Structures are given as structure tokens and as C-alpha cells.
Amino acid sequence: MKHRVIAILSLLVFTVLKAGHTADYSLNRIHPEPVYIPDGAYLITEGVNEARLNDVIDLSKDFYPIQIGAFRVKSNAEKMYNEVSEVLGSDVAIIEEDGYFKVRVSKLNLDKVKSYIEPAEEPYENESFQESSAPLADTIATAAITADTVQEAFVAIPPVIEMPAPALEPLVDKPPKFFLLNSESPWLKRINYFGKSFALVNALIITIFISFVTMIILLMVILLNRRRMEKEEDLRQYLAETYQGMIIDYLFTGSSPDNFRSIASDNYRRQSLIDQMIDVSVNLKGDAEEKLSGLYLYLGLDRDSIRRAHDYRWHKKVKGFRELAFMNIKDANDEIYKALNSSNEILRMEAQIALVRLTNEDPFSFLFQLERPFSLWEQITLHELIIQHDLPVPQFSKFIKASNPTVVMFALRMIREFKQRQAEDDVREALEHPSQEVRKLAVEIAGDLEFRSTLEVMKRMYKSQDNHTCLEIIKAMAKMPDPSLLGFLKLVLDKEDDVQLQIEATKAIENNGEEGVKTLVKLMKSEYKNYNIIVRHVLDRRIF
């Protein structure tokens, strides 16, 4: 650092001794474009080029402020300031400008400089160098210091040997920038950014502006869409009332179907007419239902429903299936069968409902084609469909042989729901089904319907079942009291560690009447006290 300061001060001494005497020493003075001296430190300290020295003398006749360093980091500027101020004293200042900390010299004490750099300077033969003692002018030799290191980079005049000095050019006014995005804006000048770029601030301003505009656009779109939806709702309500009246008049007063021709020519009104016909058909039976279906075919509305049933979008398919089911149109049954094993649960359920309504001979035959799990919600929906539309109840025992376990469970539930006791043999076969859930449900059904032929099977399978199925077996035996099972139930009470199984076995023994109660009393008097509390609990008549 010391050698760099010596080189800069040597250049300053040389230019001052060759300059004139009229100068303005104000640091804030607005001046023309500065004069840059290329390779000034090398010229003074290591090699002398007579021609280039003459050029420097000519250039130093005008006076400018002297800037010896510009730093992005303030600590670097203070370091240079401390070393230079040892020679120049209070004539050195640090000025913050344009994001840089600049070290500038206002005056130069020539004696101090000479005494400081005398060991490093060789005597020069030029008399004007020894005799001149002019004060420091405002000649600039800018040392651009970047990246927190001092690096001298002098530009603007190419190296010359016999070329004249370049002429100074007047300042040219630049066009004004946008007020908010200009780094000279007073809004931004009030904040100290410590040399940082204004790009981040500009980006934030642009982001806020774009967000505000976007918010306004979204608000307008929402308001316009809301207004449109309100108008559509008003129109839908008006058309619903109008078309329902027309349909009722056609069905019960004998008005002409040609009144609907103008409606069927418009797509939106056509769809509204279909929706109203579906709503009306829910409460129609017999001749009125057939008459409405005839009107549906006469207006060609069935083509719209079939086209929707073949649509690739699932919600359109659902709508098409529903319309065809209510209007009893079977032209798209093949497409409905394809949807039975769709990955979309809603589409599967709508296909099942449609096939139940559209199949006359065996409405539930599609159950044999189900490959995906038949969910409990789908089972409940089909049961409600049977009840609401008074559909003929098939013999669900045939579905126990289906390969889909969930279909078998549906069949068992329907056997219990409709009390189909003739399915006892099939339920007994279901007790040995490969699925654990099917076996457990079959035990429940056998107990609820009191299929006594299943008792021996349940007794035989007890040891190989999980705890839940074993518990259902004991509960089923309690629903079908049989003295021949007392030994088995006593063994369960004695050997099982699960308290719930012991309680259910005790209840099953008690359900065998007087003989069962005597067996429990005898067990209670035994020396084995582990289940005495359970027996007392079951025999206590205060507990229901």
C-alpha cells in the first residue's frame, strides 16, 4: 500500500510543478470531463519518457479536483485515507458519491510530499521540476478501486509518444428517466443503500405495480363472471317454470307436441327442457311415463343423451347415463357396461343404477361382471333403488358364488335384509369362503336368521379363525341355544384368555335356559376363581 501511495503522490508533485496558478479548490465544483493520465505511476517512478512528460505538462494547465481512490467498502477507503493523511494532513477527505467512498485531495503541501517520497524519487534534470512550487490544482488521476482491493486503471487516452493531448468535450445532457426507476430520483436518494444497485428496488416497484394491476383485473373478471352467473340462474329459473308448465299441459291436457319444436332448436334451451323432463319423470308411472318418453323420442332428445353417454369426459357420461335410465332408452347399454369397471367410483355407481333401471329380466346380472371392489356406499345405493322404485327382488343366493368377495358380501346383506331363508345352504357354504371378511359376515347372517345347520360348521372352524370371527361365532351360538354346545362353550370359558370371549360364552350358556344356569352355578362354586366374577356378572339380574 505504501508503494502505491508513493507512486500517486509522485504523479501529483510532477503535475503540480508544471501547472498554472489559477484554480478553484472546491470539492463540490461541477467540472468538465476529467483528464486521465495513463501509466502515470510508472512514468514517474521507473521510467522517464520525455515526450510523454511534455504531454502531461500540457494537460495539467487546467485545474481540477484530485481523486486518488474510489472504494466500494468504506474500510478500504479509510485505510488509504490514514496513509495519505500522514503526509497531507487535513487536506485529504473521504466523500460518499454514486455508491463509492472516494478519497480526494484539496491542497498539497509540496515540502511534505518531497520529504516523504525523497528516498524513492530520483532527481530529475528538468529545471522547471526543481523550481516550480505552485499549489495543487484540480487535475484528476482517478484510481478505480473495486472488489475490495486497490487497482489503478487509467483510461481514455491511449499511450502516445508524439501525439497531442485530446481535446476536452463538453457535457451532454442525458434524456430524463422514468421518475420512480431513476437512480437520481429524490424518492430513492433519501435512502442510503450503501453502494447497492437500485435493481432490487426497481424490481420491487415493478412487482408491486404488476400485482396491483393483476388484482384489479381479477376483481373485474370476478364481478363480470358473478354477474353472468346471476343472469344464467335467473334464465334457468324462468325456463324451468315455463317448461314444467308446458310438459304438464302436454301430459294431462293433450296439447300438441309441436309447441316444443322451437325449444328443441336451441342447444341451451334444449338441455333445460331435458332436465325438466327428467325431473317430471321421477313421479310418473304408467301411461304418463310412456307418453313423456314418446315426447322425448319425438323431439330427438335421445340423440343428445346417447352422445353424452359416449363422451370421453366422465361427468358428461354420468349425465347421459342418468337421462337414458330415466327415459328407459337402452341404445347405449354397451357403453354403460364398459363403465362398470371404471376407475371412477361415481361413474361406476351411475352405470350400476342405470343398468338396474334398464334391465328388465335380471336387473342385477351385472354383479357377475364387477371386477373392482363393490363399495358399501354402492351397495346402500342399490338397496335404496330397490326400495324407492319397488323393483323385483332377485334371489341373491346365486351371487354368493361370484368371484368378487365384495359382491358376495352384498348378496349376504341382501339375504338378511329381505329375509331370504331359503338361502341357508348357500350361507353355510359361505362360512368356508377364502375371504376372512366374508366368513365373518356369513357367521353374522347365520346367527341373525338362525340357520341352525351352520352350528356344527362354526364349531369346527372356531379354532382356525381370528379373534373377531371367533367372537361372532360365540354370539351366533348365543342366538341359537343348543344344549349340545354347552361342553364347547364351557371349554371356551375355561381356555380363552380374552375377557370378551369369556363373557359371550357365559351369555351363550345362560341362554340355554335352566340347564345353562345350573351349569354356571356349578362353575361358580368351583375352586377356579378366574371367571367367577364373569359368571356373577352375567347371572346378576340387575344388569340388562
Residue share in helix: 55-70%
Spatial order of the strands in the main sheet?
Answer: 1-3-2
State the end-to-end CA separation.
Answer: 102 Å
Total beta strands: 3
The biggest beta sheet reads: 3 strands, antiparallel
Note the run of SSEs as H and E.
HHHEHEEHHHHHHHHHHHHHHHHHHHHH
Taking all Cα atoms into account, the compactness measure Rg is 52 Å
Give the overall silhouette.
flat
User: Assembly type of the shown chains?
Assistant: single chain
Structural class: mainly alpha
Residue-averaged pLDDT: 76
Walk me through the structure.
- This protein is mainly α and 544 residues long.
- Among the domains are: 2-165, no CATH class; 497-544.
- 55% of the residues lie in helices and 3% in strands.
- The chain is built from 25 helices and three strands.
- The chain has helices at 2-17, 40-45, 50-59, 74-88, 110-117, 127-131, 186-189, 199-252, 261-264, 267-281, 286-298, 301-309, 314-327, 333-338, 345-358, 376-388, 405-417, 424-430, 436-448, 455-461, 467-479, 486-495, 499-510, 514-524, 532-539, and strands at 66-71, 92-97, 100-105.
- A three-stranded antiparallel β-sheet has the order 1-3-2, with helices on one face.
